[in-house]
């Protein structure tokens, strides 16, 4: 259970770490993007314009297509489904008047009332057999405007009310009856709410028949009431009366004689209503769906004297169902494309900045224009080459991530200095930095040299104050300057690089390679330009002529700041050197030899493990602290770093400082006696003085001394197994320094590191030992 709990806890912690790293990357990218947009607000403006253009265009297309679809749908409803329903309603209305037309035809042939009385039943049954009796429910004869006969016959109270009712005598019906008589055509009147409980309408056929006189009654015994219009003397005709049929409107609708239900099945809402055309036909709604049609298509239906309107519209409206999603897609797509454009613009801006950082603006413009070979000659430029001391050793002792982090921090600081001084960074290869002033933008040679020198001084000062994120790491650099002509050009097609070519570049590299740690070495050409500037802040210290590889003898100078001091607080000027200010003033000093300058450089101190401490084998590891600190010695003493070089044929080292008191450690005591010098052997010492430069700082043979070293191991280190392991390591390492043990068997701890401290003084090539040093052993 405990193991499972621990496993789950570890899994959760790993998941949280992954999530935290992911969100950290996201937040970092957002911060970088926001910073870039703050510097380039035009990118946001372009993105908004693109978004508005895309959104406007997309919405216009969608709305136009939607409007066209609405037009097609309305046209289809009007000329298709709606028109078919309207035609059906008109035909159904015409069928309702068929019975009244048959009856009026029979009355015209046999107008006498006695004849009609005898044949009424037979005639009515014959007519009803020819029509739809579920729709046409009644036949009626109204002689002289009086209700005379109906079929089926009326019964009860209704018969008492209707039979004998004079339509011309009652004010409610007189006007309508006279209007139909005047028109003399078949008409449909209504709708009415009949006593049977349904909505009904009447088809009416007014009859005007030939008559011999105005008082002729066709044997019926009745005359039209107060009707001067009923006799037409001109054509000798008289108003006989009217025949009519009553039909059930609700039955027409419910039986789908009008095909209204088909509209509902097809997804249409409808409304059928009658327009007022006469006193007998008032405005009325005949039928409607549950949902009222919105923005309907209206179709007119005309039958006889009727004017009906059919209004239809889709239940979901005319707007197509795809318009809403399309509008949403246009908006979302426009925003997405705008964000993509913003991302492309930001990426392009980042790439542009990267290209501008890698290539000069002029060269980049020429490459974008498609020019081929790009090369130009610059007659007077100043090339600066900087290098980290001990980088090879340090990179082998640090992880790749630590090396990259260290270089990134350091070169980021140098990039800021280059931008500040107007110096173009050409390349950074490994730990080497190359910059140039006066190229690619030509400038005055003196001004170029001054800017390069100012950057070199600031580089040294910045490195002195530089505290990397890696604990226990100290950085040292060398800088070389040379002025002269160069050829600059872009090399490569897939990965073009702006490069400098010419002897000036090589000479600047030689200046850097022969310089000391934390110092700036300039050539005579650069020194002359700095003197010509007339500025007092540049102090030039002559080193004399130096034999440079591939260049021969060249005079070199140390470039010092006016306030520059060594780590111990003493002036950098040495006896025997001439300190020259850029203004032209010189400061003479006591005579000194070049070997003394070598000893002075070797004596420069570095308070903590640093680049330039050199070392390999058993020296303190650069950038790493011992896993266990060594106990303090019983006797404390001030230690001055020394330089050790192996001698041929003996275990010896060259010391370059005075003697030191011995120190006792729990792990043993190392005693070293200075011996006469012998020739230098092959290889390099596994023990190096802290602060000495690996490339420069080896004492000249005429002043070197040899130190014989012996080790007294502490009792805690006397382990036979470890002793045997140590001896095997000493035998298999060709370049390792052999430490002769004291008379008592001694074994060194596997993780022991040798820190050399002490001092020696100069001595001739032969003679008695003059000094001794002791080496502290610690884990």
From TrEMBL:
Residues 581-597 have a biased composition (Polar residues). It comes from Chlamydomonas schloesseri. InterPro entries: A/G_cyclase, A/G_cyclase_CS, Cyclic_nucleotide_synthase, Nucleotide_cyclase. Residues 382-512 form the Guanylate cyclase domain. This is Guanylate cyclase domain-containing protein. SMART domains: CYCc. The chain crosses the membrane at residues 43-65, 326-346. The keyword Cell cycle does not apply. It comes from the Eukaryota. It is found in: Membrane. Keywords: Lyase, Membrane, Nucleotide-binding, Transmembrane, Transmembrane helix. Belongs to the adenylyl cyclase class-4/guanylyl cyclase family. Residues 569-703, 719-779 are annotated as: Disordered. Residues 569-580, 624-633, 683-700, 719-737, 745-759 have a biased composition (Low complexity). GO terms for molecular function: adenylate cyclase activity; guanylate cyclase activity; nucleotide binding; peptide receptor activity. The keyword Transmembrane applies. One of its GO terms (cellular component) is plasma membrane. One of its GO terms (biological process) is intracellular signal transduction. PANTHER family: GUANYLATE CYCLASE (PTHR11920:SF335), GUANYLYL CYCLASE (PTHR11920).
């Amino acid at each position: 259970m405990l193991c499972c709990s621990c496993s789950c806890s570890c899994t959760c912690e790993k998941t949280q770490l992954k999530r935290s790293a992911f969100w950290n990357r996201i937040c970092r990218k957002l911060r970088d993007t926001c910073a870039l947009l703050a510097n380039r607000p035009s990118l946001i403006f372009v993105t908004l314009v693109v978004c508005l253009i895309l959104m406007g265009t997309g919405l216009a297309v969608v709305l136009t297509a939607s409007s066209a679809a609405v037009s097609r749908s309305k046209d289809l409803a009007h000329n298709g489904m709606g028109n078919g329903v309207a035609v059906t309603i008109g035909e159904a209305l015409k069928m309702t008047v068929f019975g009244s037309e048959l009856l009026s035809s029979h009355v015209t042939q046999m107008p006498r009332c006695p004849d009609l009385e005898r044949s009424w039943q037979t005639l009515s049954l014959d007519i009803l057999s020819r029509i739809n009796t579920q729709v046409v429910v009644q036949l009626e004869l109204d002689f002289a405007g009086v209700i005379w006969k109906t079929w089926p016959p009326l019964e009860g109270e209704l018969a008492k009310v209707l039979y004998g009712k004079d339509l011309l005598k009652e004010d409610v019906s007189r006007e309508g009856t006279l209007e139909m008589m005047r028109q003399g055509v078949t008409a449909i009147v209504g709708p009415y709410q009949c006593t049977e409980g349904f909505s009904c309408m009447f088809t009416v056929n007014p009859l005007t028949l030939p008559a011999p006189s105005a008082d002729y009654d066709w044997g019926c015994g009745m005359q039209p009431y107060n009707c001067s219009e009923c006799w037409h003397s001109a054509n000798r005709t008289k108003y006989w009366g009217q025949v009519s049929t009553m039909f059930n409107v609700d039955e027409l609708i419910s039986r789908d004689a009008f095909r209204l239900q088909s509209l509902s099945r097809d997804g249409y809402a409808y409304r059928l209503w009658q327009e007022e055309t006469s006193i007998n036909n008032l405005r009325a709604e005949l039928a409607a769906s549950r949902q009222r049609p919105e923005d309907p298509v209206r179709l007119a239906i005309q039958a006889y004297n009727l004017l009906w309107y059919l209004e239809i519209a889709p239940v979901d409206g005319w707007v197509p169902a795809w318009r809403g999603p399309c509008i949403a897609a246009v908006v979302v797509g426009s925003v997405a494309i705008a964000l993509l454009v913003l991302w492309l613009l930001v990426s392009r801006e980042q790439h542009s900045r990267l290209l501008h950082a890698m290539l000069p603006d002029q060269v980049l413009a020429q490459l974008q224009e498609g020019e081929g070979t790009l090369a130009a000659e610059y007659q007077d430029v100043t090339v600066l080459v900087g290098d980290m001391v001990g980088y090879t050793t340090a990179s082998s002792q640090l992880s790749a991530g630590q090396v990259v982090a260290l270089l990134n921090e350091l070169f980021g600081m140098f990039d800021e200095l280059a931008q500040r001084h107007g110096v173009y960074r050409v390349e950074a290869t490994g730990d080497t930095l190359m910059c140039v002033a006066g190229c690619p933008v030509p400038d005055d040679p003196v001004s170029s040299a001054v800017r390069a020198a100012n950057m070199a001084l600031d580089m040294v000062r910045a490195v002195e104050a530089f505290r990397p994120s890696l604990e226990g790491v100290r950085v040292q650099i060398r800088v070389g300057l040379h002025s002269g002509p160069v050829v600059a050009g872009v090399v490569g097609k897939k990965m073009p690089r702006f490069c400098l070519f010419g002897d000036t570049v090589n000479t600047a590299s030689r200046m850097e390679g022969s310089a000391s740690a934390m110092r700036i070495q300039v050539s005579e050409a650069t020194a002359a330009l700095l003197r010509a500037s007339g500025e007092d802040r540049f102090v030039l210290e002559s080193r004399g002529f130096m034999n440079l590889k591939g260049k021969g003898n060249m005079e070199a100078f140390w470039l010092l700041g006016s306030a520059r001091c060594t780590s111990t607080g003493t002036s950098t000027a040495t006896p025997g050197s001439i300190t020259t200010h850029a203004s032209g003033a010189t400061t003479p000093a006591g005579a000194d030899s070049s070997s003394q300058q070598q000893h002075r450089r070797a004596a420069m101190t570095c308070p903590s493990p640093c680049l330039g401490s050199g070392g390999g084998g058993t020296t303190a590891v650069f950038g790493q602290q011992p896993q266990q600190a060594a106990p303090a010695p019983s006797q404390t003493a001030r230690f001055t770093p020394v330089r050790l070089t192996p001698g041929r044929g003996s275990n010896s080292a060259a010391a370059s400082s005075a003697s030191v008191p011995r120190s006792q450690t729990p792990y043993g005591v190392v005693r070293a006696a200075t011996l006469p010098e012998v020739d230098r052997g092959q290889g390099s010492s596994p023990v190096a003085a802290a602060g000495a430069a690996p490339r420069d700082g080896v004492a000249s043979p005429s002043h070197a001394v040899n130190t014989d070293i012996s080790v007294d191991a502490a009792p805690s280190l006397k382990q036979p197994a470890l002793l045997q392991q140590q001896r095997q390591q000493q035998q298999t390492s060709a370049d390792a320094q052999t430490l002769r043990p004291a008379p008592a068997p001694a074994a060194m701890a596997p993780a022991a590191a040798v820190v050399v401290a002490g001092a020696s003084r100069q001595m001739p090539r032969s003679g008695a030992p003059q000094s001794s040093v002791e080496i502290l052993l610690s884990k």
